[in-house]
């Protein structure tokens, strides 16, 4: 017998006669408040920065972040209108710009797809994430119940990279970006 | 990993005597985590969340064969290679083949308790692979050659000054370098490793059967990098780590984060579906190794199986006043603290872990903290009962308890000893039990008259 | 109303005054008190150490001794929990154990929940008190507010203490099986202890352990069982 058969047969033997536990239903999601507002609040509490902006505001935000920088790395889904700086490889770029699949208000989270990229989300010290306002879910549960197609990896990012492993002092930007900026885009773009 | 649990009492005492700084560092860190957890639990209806999580896990465990096969099927559909391993031997063989096939020279590793169980690092090193632990705390203890002392914060026993000395010797940083400066040094070394490694190794917090999704939680970004940059990713997953449905993650991810660190969600969650698709960045191969290593034995134990719900959040360690005095090293195995005291005997056998179930005052703080309501005090009592039944308890203890019970069975004997306690000089330093008490607390001072005598006088 | 007092072996030997205070207080509140002479130990030390056979025979004899009682009251949270919770594990399905469980109370719990008494008098006016929550009273019996309420209502001030709900490190056999860890835990409690007129708790074991450790460190503070303070609250 191979390991699989041995393990499964031991499990079946153990479960014989053991009462089966029922699987509880998922809870009803709480009534949604204004998810965008809660999202911005939670981002701030997580040590990230969030801005609710229209297309112009977003470009201004990007321009401010881009000031003095030689270039940026871009996720595949970032529209040309937001590619103000020359493109650099993520290993060298001081700024990464991504487009999120969706966001979650209750946890202050942006969901990033591997289809948009991976290095751009992780290697530059500053990470700007664009997300449309209508893609902000109130809760993780609603977002997950709604998710139908899966890229090879989704990264949920809820703030800057951090660690308190050295003497219990919080340090930002340990491996991932030390700064996370999220632009919640209103209207069409 | 070598098991040294039998030495717990000696090692705990030695550590308190010789390294008092550890107690200070661990107490500070765990009280901080514990306060954060309490605040995070207060923000939600924690009782309902915990009860729901308990039920989902119980369902999963009582249907484990079904969900394991489903998970395997879903993973394979997406091109993930799935393996099954009883323990270290098979896990090593699988890893050895992958290393050989890809000519792996360098591996980056995301913190995983299971890989500690399996001794993955020593194996890789024996194959000539350069291994980098990439969680900052785990990297520190790798440099020191120590095992982790906490499930979530492997280096919480180290003070800033310990790390300053370590980096001074290793990298020539000044002895008063700031935590930021030290982290920057580690970042630089490990960034280079991420960019050049052929292999990424991880555990998993969860494996969703319905979708074949691996879920991994962290705050630094090293897990995302370890599972994104190298061309091969191998994940070791304990068979109890499954969840039935993808949406169960909406409960388990935030609950684990709240329990572990008091966060609403860990800074990063990786939800991994499989190898990179055409035109995508990411590993070209993803391998999942499903590991038993004692878990089916526990599942077969009707008095102890509930421990398999464990999410490895470390909340019980932070809540435990016994753990706080020493950190995890004296426990002598990967899992320490309250969960170690009830998991290790199940995984390794009671004979090799005898003292661990006694590393508790049964204060119950662990149960209140546990996000899946593992009845740790009840399980501790169960393992103690078995230890006595199997004759593992020391002779002096058995003798003392049996004598005590004999006296307590008989009111006349009890009264006789009550008189002796007052009339005769107590041989305070002769009886080992008394000596252990009086050394740190001074002599026992009984009331001038016992209550049962006062009651008689009260009546008369 | 008639109460059978289960004084517990530890209080009998080391805190006899807690037994006296319990009797006086209950009588003052109009309750008749019996003291079954055959009582000794509830069996907790053996149970917690894993010696279930020994614990079971002590549990059985305790069941017999208190069979006829209307209520059983203990000036101890830990022993009360042993009788109330753990006898049911030692003697599963035993109806007598269930009956005893249902009529057994820790003293402050009995006063507040059964007698409905929340004010005893003003005897502790102006006194400051550090209250140690014994773990079994707190987490196994859910006795948290009762003692605090009775103390506060008698004019005492409960001082904030960050470690008030942490285990003191006694743990019965634990204190001698792992003495170094036990003492380190006591030291954490003592190092955070506020300066108060008295340190109190429901449990004699914790107090014995903390008093001994404080004495060893030359720290002087009145350490007194809760029952004694409650009697002082009543009698002034």
Feature tags:
heterotrimer; A: about 190 residues; alpha/beta; Rossmann fold; 4-stranded mixed beta sheet; 5 helices; 11 strands; about 25% strand; B: about 450 residues; 6-stranded parallel beta sheet; globular
Can you characterise this structure?
The complex is a heterotrimer of chains A (189), B (460) and C (236). With 189 residues, chain A is of the alpha/beta class. Chain A has a single domain (33-185), classed as NagB/RpiA/CoA transferase-like (Rossmann fold). Chain A contains five helices and eleven strands, in the order ααβαββββαββαββββ. The relative contact order of chain A is 0.19. The mean pLDDT of chain A is 95. Chain B contains 22 helices and ten strands. In chain B, helix 2 packs across helix 12, helix 16 crosses helix 18 (376-389) and helix 19 crosses helix 20. The model of chain B has no long low-confidence stretch (mean pLDDT 96). Chain C is an alpha/beta fold. Chain C has two domains: 2-114, Rossmann fold; 128-235. Chain C contains 13 helices and eight strands. In chain C, the strands form two sheets. Chain C has a four-stranded parallel beta sheet with strand order 2-1-3-4, with helices on both faces. In chain C, strand 7 (198-201), helix 12 (204-216) and strand 8 (222-225) form a beta-alpha-beta unit. The longest helix of chain C has 14 residues, at 52-65. The chains are: A alpha/beta (189), B alpha/beta (460), C alpha/beta (236). Chains A and B meet through helix 1, helix 4, helix 5, strand 8 and strand 9 of A and helix 2, helix 3, helix 4, strand 1 and helix 8 of B. Strand 8 (153-157) of chain A pairs antiparallel with strand 9 (268-272) of chain B.
Concise structural overview:
The complex is a heterotrimer of chains A (189), B (460) and C (236). Chain A is of the alpha/beta class. Chain A is 25% helix and 24% strand.
Mean of residue pLDDT values of chain B: 96
Look at the structure and give the CATH class of the domain at 5-163 and 196-295 in chain B. Alpha Beta
> What is the CATH C-level name of the largest domain in chain C?
Alpha Beta
- Residues in helices of chain B, as a percent range: 40-55%
Q: Which fold name fills CATH's third level, the topology of the domain at 5-163 and 196-295 in chain B? A: Rossmann fold
The outline of chain B comes out as globular
**What can be said about the biggest beta sheet of chain C?**
4 strands, parallel
Number of DSSP-assigned strands of chain C: 8
CATH homologous superfamily classification of the domain at 5-163 and 196-295 in chain B? NagB/RpiA/CoA transferase-like
- What is the gyration radius of chain C calculated from CA atoms? 17 Å
Through-space gap between termini of chain C: 25 Å
Biggest β-sheet strands, sense, barrel of chain B: 6 strands, parallel
String of helices and strands of chain C: EHHEHHEHHEHEHHEHHEHEH
CATH architectural designation of the domain at 5-163 and 196-295 in chain B: 3-Layer(aba) Sandwich
Largest interface: A-B, 68 and 94 residues
Instruction: Kindly state the percentage of residues in helix of chain C.
Output: 40-55%
Strand content of chain B: 5-15%
| Mean pLDDT across all amino acids of chain C | 97
Tally of strands of chain B: 10
How much β-strand is present in the residues of chain C?
A: 5-15%
Shape annotation of chain C: globular
């Amino acid at each position: 017998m191979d390991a699989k058969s041995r393990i499964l047969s031991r499990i079946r033997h153990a479960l014989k006669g053991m009462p089966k536990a029922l699987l509880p239903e998922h809870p009803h999601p709480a009534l949604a408040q204004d998810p965008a507002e809660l999202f911005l609040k939670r981002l701030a509490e997580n040590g990230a920065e969030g801005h609710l902006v229209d297309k112009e505001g977003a470009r201004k935000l990007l321009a401010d972040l881009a000031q003095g920088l030689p270039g940026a790395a871009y996720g595949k889904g970032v529209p040309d209108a937001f590619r103000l700086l020359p493109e650099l490889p993520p290993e060298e770029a001081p700024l990464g710009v991504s487009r999120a699949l969706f966001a979650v208000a209750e946890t202050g989270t942006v969901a990033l797809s591997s289809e948009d990229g991976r290095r751009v989300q992780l290697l530059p010290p500053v990470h700007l994430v664009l997300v449309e306002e209508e893609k902000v879910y109130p809760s993780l549960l609603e977002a997950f119940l709604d998710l139908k197609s899966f890229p090879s990896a989704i990264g949920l990012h809820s703030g800057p990279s951090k660690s308190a492993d050295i003497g219990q002092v919080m340090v930002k930007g340990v491996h991932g970006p030390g700064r996370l900026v999220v632009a919640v885009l209103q209207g069409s773009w | 990993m070598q098991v040294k649990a039998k030495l717990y009492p000696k090692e705990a005492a030695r550590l308190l005597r010789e390294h008092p700084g550890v107690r200070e560092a661990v107490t500070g860190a765990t009280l901080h985590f514990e306060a954060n957890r309490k605040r995070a639990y207060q923000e939600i209806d924690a009782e309902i969340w915990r009860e729901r999580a308990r039920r989902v896990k119980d369902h999963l465990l009582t249907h484990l064969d079904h969900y394991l096969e489903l998970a395997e099927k879903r993973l394979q559909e997406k091109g993930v290679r799935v393996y099954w391993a009883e323990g270290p031997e098979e896990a090593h063989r699988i890893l050895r083949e992958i290393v050989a096939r890809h000519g792996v020279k360098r591996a980056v590793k995301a913190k995983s308790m299971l890989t500690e169980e399996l001794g993955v690092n020593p194996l890789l090193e024996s194959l000539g692979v350069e291994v980098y632990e990439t969680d900052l705390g785990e990297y520190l203890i790798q440099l020191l050659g120590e095992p982790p002392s906490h499930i979530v914060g492997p280096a919480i026993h180290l003070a800033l000054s310990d790390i300053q000395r370590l980096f001074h010797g290793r990298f020539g940083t000044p002895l008063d370098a700031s935590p930021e400066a030290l982290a920057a040094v580690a970042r630089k070394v490990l960034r280079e490793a991420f960019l050049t490694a052929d292999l990424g190794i991880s555990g998993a917090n969860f494996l969703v059967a319905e979708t074949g999704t691996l879920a991994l939680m962290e705050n630094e970004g090293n897990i995302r990098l370890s599972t994104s940059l190298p061309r091969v990713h191998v994940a070791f997953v304990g068979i109890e780590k499954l969840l039935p449905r993808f949406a169960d993650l909406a409960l388990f991810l935030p609950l684990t984060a709240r329990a572990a660190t008091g966060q609403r969600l860990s800074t990063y969650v990786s939800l991994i579906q499989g190898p990179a698709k055409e035109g995508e960045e990411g590993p070209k191969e993803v391998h999942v190794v499903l590991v038993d290593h004692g878990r089916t034995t526990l599942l077969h134990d009707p008095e102890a199986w509930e421990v398999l719900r464990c999410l490895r959040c470390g909340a019980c360690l932070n809540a435990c006043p016994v753990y706080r005095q020493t950190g995890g090293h004296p426990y002598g195995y990967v899992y320490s603290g309250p969960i170690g005291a009830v998991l290790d005997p199940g995984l390794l056998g009671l004979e090799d872990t005898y003292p661990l179930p006694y590393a508790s005052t049964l204060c119950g703080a662990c149960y209140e903290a546990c996000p899946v309501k593992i009845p740790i005090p009840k399980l501790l009592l169960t393992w103690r009962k078995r230890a006595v039944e199997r004759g593992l308890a020391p002779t002096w203890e058995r003798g003392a308890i049996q004598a005590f019970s004999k006296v307590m069975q008989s009111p006349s004997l009890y009264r006789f000893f009550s008189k002796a306690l007052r009339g005769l000089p107590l041989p305070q330093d002769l009886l080992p039990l008394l000596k252990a008490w009086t050394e740190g607390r001074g002599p026992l001072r009984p009331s001038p008259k016992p209550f049962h005598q006062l009651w008689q006088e009260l009546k008369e | 109303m008639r109460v059978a007092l289960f004084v517990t072996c530890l209080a009998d030997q080391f805190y006899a005054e807690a037994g006296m205070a319990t009797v006086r207080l209950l009588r003052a509140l109009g309750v008749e008190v019996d003291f079954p002479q055959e009582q000794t130990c509830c069996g907790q030390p053996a149970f917690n150490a894993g010696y279930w056979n020994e614990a079971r025979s002590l549990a059985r004899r305790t069941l017999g001794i208190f069979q006829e009682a209307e209520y059983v009251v203990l000036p101890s949270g830990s022993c009360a929990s042993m009788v109330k919770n753990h006898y049911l594990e030692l003697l599963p399905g035993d109806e007598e154990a269930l009956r005893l469980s249902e009529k057994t109370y820790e003293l402050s719990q009995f006063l507040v929940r059964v007698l409905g008494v929340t004010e005893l008098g003003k005897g502790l006016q102006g006194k400051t008190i550090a209250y140690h929550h014994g773990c079994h009273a707190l987490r196994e019996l859910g006795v948290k507010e009762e003692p605090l309420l009775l103390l506060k209502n008698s004019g005492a001030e409960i001082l904030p203490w960050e470690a008030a709900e942490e285990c003191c490190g006694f743990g019965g056999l634990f204190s001698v099986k792992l003495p170094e860890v036990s003492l380190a835990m006591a030291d954490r409690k003592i190092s955070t202890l506020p300066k108060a007129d008295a340190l109190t708790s429901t449990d004699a074991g914790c107090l014995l352990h903390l008093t001994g450790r404080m004495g060893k460190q030359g720290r002087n503070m009145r350490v007194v069982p809760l029952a004694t303070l409650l009697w002082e609250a009543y009698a002034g």
